[in-house]
Sequence to fold (378 residues):
Amino acid sequence: MNNSELEETLKFYFPNIKEESLNTIVKHSSYLKSTKGTTLIPEGKRHHYIYLIVKGSVKSYYLKKSKEVCVWFSLENEIIGTTSTIQGNASKETIELLEDSELIKLNIEKINKLTQTDFSISNLLNNLWEKHAIFLEERLYQLQFMNSYERYEALIKDTPEILQRVSLTDIASFLGVSRETLSRIRAKK
Amino acid sequence: MNNSELEETLKFYFPNIKEESLNTIVKHSSYLKSTKGTTLIPEGKRHHYIYLIVKGSVKSYYLKKSKEVCVWFSLENEIIGTTSTIQGNASKETIELLEDSELIKLNIEKINKLTQTDFSISNLLNNLWEKHAIFLEERLYQLQFMNSYERYEALIKDTPEILQRVSLTDIASFLGVSRETLSRIRAKK
DNA sequence: GATCTCATTTGACAAATGTCACAAAACTAT
DNA sequence: ATAGTTTTGTGACATTTGTCAAATGAGATC
Fold:
């Protein structure tokens, strides 16, 4: 992927960005192709990048009694990273590729700096945070107000393809139930 | 509360704000004193304000089978509002005073506008979103990884005074358990 | 195609939590 | 202080979900 392709792709993710800001961002971006299972951001390490998923899928997880528990999944066209990364702290979660994927890697520190001098960037970051907060609120709502069956229904209604692309073990932990319980939810249906 | 007191209080909440932005915000703020049980933001209505809690406490809740289920509590020195409000949509939750309270009411639309022209405001909003996202992530983590006993422990460790100021019924729904279960958790201790 | 490995399903049982009914305690107003 | 109201606690039982063990299924490798 050359610079002008990179630019095109970035425009897709950041439609209202100023030409000048785009150039600055391109300077601090790179294209990345990697295989299933690759760790993008390891737990406990400082990490300076956020990623745009061009192709593939990614999960974020914590370890609980040496078992992975998923916090989120992301597919194409999403922007991913961890809150700690953006704040400059060590990541609490591990971010890992679920499939062979293509990504664009952005230096978050450079972007954070642009925030001080470029309104289109600071608004862009504001929008990212807003979207992230809305995602978290929706998820919290589901965990607090829906039973496991309803949460499963909501997930496959929202992202039907998740079933083809993510293991039921990961989906179960994301929904907050054991593998076996998810299996029974699906059998009852 | 006169304008210069208002200004002082706002400075406490927004320590790095530019003098000029502060003046603009003061113009679109007002002081508010109201009694326990008052609805600050009703569910289903568009609302144009966020609030700073000078004194008192506030809860946010949804209705589930005509029972209130708490989403969050806030005490003094916190900034509150709903995501929908900030985005200009109807609020999904009801925000209500838990005690007689004193608040400062800020027009969020004016503040959102300042975001386009004033970096100290856009950074301020960015910080608010960040803090909110971190709060939500922590809460999500607790719901997904801790059992009800651990969540109760975490709450009273984080905010011990909550027990004196919020009913156990509200606390139970916030923790995602029934009143009776919370009662038993407390008895076992 | 046979074998191996890993993911998923199923059964049996235990543990946690919800629900309903009622008792005890704390708080209000007179 | 008393009566009434609201909040909190407790017991009995039903339901949901977790855990462990084993069986089945699907995909990869040779």
Summary: The two ends of chain A are 45 Å apart (CA to CA). Chain A has nine helices and eight strands. The interface with chain B takes residues 62, 64, 69, 71, 83, 86-87, 115-117, 119, 122-123, 125-126, 129-130, 132-134, 136-137, 139-141, 143-145, 176 of chain A (CB under 8 Å).
